[in-house]
């Protein structure tokens, strides 16, 4: 994802969180700010980068200072080596205003420059064994079925169906299935291009 696209999504997501923290519906924010519901929806869902006057109008309506709004952007980009998400933490987003029955859940939004993507399904048999490995680039795993323990460096995460983990592949890692039944995980490799 390009830096501009990352920023567009970040701004939209943060505006939505602030609006909801004020217990405002999209229509109420539109009425108070003078910005159309359609435009606000596009901004919140990361489809449109707001112009500065539009952003200032929204922030003014929400009573948020511009500097305070962007204060944690730098911290947002710092990466501790992994990001773990529980299925209950995924954010529901609506991408198309007129759609019915399309429920998107935003699982991960993290900028990765100059990488190719490889996607695999990994079936892990009960009590399967493997040494830890390390890889170039980053990895994202999503538990489709079953429960696993994921060893990552000196940490161990219990991951249940629907949980996900994004991490620096250079950290030695291994998934462990301690159950008798198989576990299925989606694995996405972001391989750095040199």
Summarize the structure.
This protein has helices at 3-21, 26-33, 37-44, 52-61, 66-70, 73-77; strands at residues 82-85, 91-93, 104-106, 115-124, 138-145, 148-152, 155-159, 164-168, 173-176, 183-192.
What key attributes describe this structure?
194 residues; alpha+beta; 434 Repressor (Amino-terminal Domain); Jelly Rolls; 2 domains; five-stranded antiparallel sheet; three-stranded antiparallel sheet; 6 helices; 10 strands
Architecture overview:
This protein has 194 residues and is of the alpha+beta class. It has 2 domains: 3-77, 434 Repressor (Amino-terminal Domain); 79-194, Sandwich (Jelly Rolls). The chain is 28% helix and 29% strand. It has 6 helices and 10 strands, in the order ααααααββββββββββ. The protein has helices spanning 3-21, 26-33, 37-44, 52-61, 66-70, 73-77, and strands spanning 82-85, 91-93, 104-106, 115-124, 138-145, 148-152, 155-159, 164-168, 173-176, 183-192. The strands form 3 sheets. The protein has a 5-stranded antiparallel beta sheet, with no helix packed on it. The protein has a 3-stranded antiparallel beta sheet with strand order 7-6-9, with no helix packed on it. Strands 2-3 form a two-stranded antiparallel ribbon. The longest helix has 19 residues, at 3-21. It is elongated. The chain starts with a helix and ends with a strand. The model has no long low-confidence stretch (mean pLDDT 81).
